[in-house]
Amino acid sequence: MVAEEIRKLSEQSAAGAEQIKELAQGITEKSGETVEQADVVKDIIREEQDYIIATREQYQQLEQSIRHSAEEIRKIAGETRHLSQQKEDILGNIGSLSAISEENAANNQQVNANIDEILTQIQTVGANCDKMKQISGELENSVAYFHTEKEPAGK
User: Fold this and answer.
1) Taking the CB of residue 29, how many other CB atoms lie within 10 A of it?
2) CA dihedral defined by 46, 50, 55, 60, rounded to 10 degrees?
3) How many CB atoms are closer than 10 A to CB 6?
4) Dist. CA 107–CA 73, nearest whole Å
5) How far apart are CA 108 and CA 80, in angstroms?
6) Angle between helices 2-93 and 98-150 (to 10 degrees)
7) CA distances to 46, 59, 131, 135, 144 from 138, in Å
8) How far apart are CA 23 and CA 43, in angstroms?
């Protein structure tokens, strides 16, 4: 009878050991999947960082192009103002062409208004670049969090 009880206990112990083994294997598989998913997330974050860097570079190039264009427009506006002055000197001597002179002055005002609008847009692009730099910094901090989570516990 005692031998029967010992045999039953032995079978129950073996079954329990098998369940523990299966649980350990399940935990090992899940932790492997978790590591794989963490690697996928890390790759996605790296890819997003690359996109942000590329976008920031494109905004910087765009900003430089806009600044160059604005400078060229200012030069053109300066030349336009100079030509307008010469034209007005000529038109002042020709009384019959005064209507044309007024129209050219209105055009010069429009050019100046366009320059102001372009300068405002340049400032907006600059602010957007600053915001992208801030977001990039925040993403770098987020990526740093994942790097520290993956380090061994002893470090």
Assistant:
1) 10
2) 120
3) 10
4) 14
5) 7
6) 160
7) 13, 18, 11, 5, 10
8) 30
Q: What is the C-alpha to C-alpha distance for residues 14 and 118, in angstroms, rounded to an integer?
A: 81
d(CA 136, CA 50): 10
- The answer to whether residue 2 scores a pLDDT higher than 80 is no
Residue type present at position 118: I
**Radius of gyration (Cα) for the chain, nearest Å?**
37
Q: What pLDDT was estimated at residue 102?
A: 75
pLDDT over 90, % of the chain: 14
- Tens digits of residue pLDDT in 94-119: 665 566 567 778 888 988 888 888 88
Q: Where are the alpha helices (DSSP H) in 94-151?
A: 98-150
Residue identified by tokens 């009878």 is 1
Q: Mean pLDDT lowest for which of 46-50, 57-61, 67-71, 104-108?
A: 104-108
